[in-house]
Design goal:
Helix content is about 40%, strand content about 15%. With about 300 residues, the protein is an alpha/beta fold. The chain has an eight-stranded mixed β-sheet with strand order 3-4-2-5-1-6-7-8, sandwiched between helices.
Length: about 300
């Protein structure tokens, strides 16, 4: 029995929420936590064919801001609008893989193998997930060794881009879950991305770190990837009951304006439950406010 499965049994996989457990949706016309009127977002059009993919890096050098949770749930929400999605776990901790019920240390083929064995076909490491239309390129602790190896490589910042290039025509979105640092792996993700989604916990210290991240993004744009842009800043773990959270939200909107998504992810017990269950919230609690929030985020990301 795997360590992850043992942990699930010892923790107790929570019961799937009933309809009565679901949280209410926001009222139509509500200005929302951003304090501004919600911008009209068109319903995504159906696609006649898939690809080439938009590569979006989910990036924040601060840990614990909901980055991995957002990657999983945004990816699942995008599939509901007919988009094919590839999730790339680019963190040696393998949190994205764990969040989808995968046991990282038992995997024989991960993104590490693709980086180190250039003759290996990229599709050999891709895994199907519990969500139809969403695949996973997993990771584990081996990836930390790849970062050391890349230091001496020529064109080391473009390694991830070369690795996933054969897969881009099969998907509409590639979401790269970056590690919580501004090291070489994160720079690789930014160097091949079309856009960056910055999950930002509504807490003062998180706000301070965004300026450093944006500075890094600007340097990557100037030196490595002219097409890179900030897709949006996503406020996570929002608790409207606290004055501090509301003040941070106000400062974020004041500083970054329209770059901030209208969608805000509220703090809820549903997200820890989905991690234990190994499913996105759109499957675990499909009628919950959290699931609907990620659907709204998906529409915003498609529109941008």
């Amino acid at each position: 029995m795997s360590t992850w499965m043992s942990a699930q049994q010892s923790l107790g996989v929570p019961a799937r929420p009933s309809m009565s457990d679901d949280e209410p949706d926001a009222e139509d016309g509500d200005a929302g936590p951003t304090g501004r009127p919600r911008r009209a977002v068109p319903q995504p059009v159906e696609l006649e064919r898939h690809g080439p993919a938009r590569v979006v890096a989910m990036c924040n050098q601060k840990g614990g801001v909901g980055k991995t949770t957002s990657a999983i749930n945004l990816g699942a929400a995008l599939t509901e609008y007919g988009r094919k999605v590839l999730l790339v776990d680019f963190d040696p901790q393998g949190a994205l893989s764990v969040g989808l019920g995968i046991t990282p240390h038992q995997l024989e083929r991960t993104i590490y193998n693709l980086i180190m064995e250039r003759s290996m076909p990229a599709e050999d490491a891709v895994l199907a997930t519990c969500v139809e239309g969403m695949d996973l390129l997993p990771s584990n602790i081996d990836l930390s060794a790849a970062e050391v190896h890349l230091v001496t490589e020529v064109g080391r910042e473009q390694t991830l881009g070369r690795t996933i290039a054969p897969l881009l025509d099969r998907y509409d979105f590639v979401l790269v879950d970056c590690q919580p640092s501004l090291g070489l792996l994160t720079v690789n993700a930014l160097a091949c991305a079309d856009g960056v989604v910055i999950p930002l916990e509504c807490e003062f210290f998180s706000l301070r770190g965004v300026a450093l991240l944006i500075d890094t993004i600007e340097k990557v744009r100037e030196r490595l990837n002219p097409k890179l842009k900030i897709t949006g800043i996503l406020a996570t773990m929002y608790d409207p009951r606290t004055l501090h959270t509301r003040e941070v939200m106000s400062r974020v909107v004041e500083a970054f304006g329209d770059t901030v998504f209208d969608t805000v992810i509220n703090r809820t017990v549903r997200f820890p439950e989905t991690t234990v269950a190994g499913e996105p919230i759109t499957r675990w609690a499909p009628k919950s406010a959290g699931a609907n929030a990620y659907r709204a985020l998906a529409r915003e990301v498609i529109a941008r």
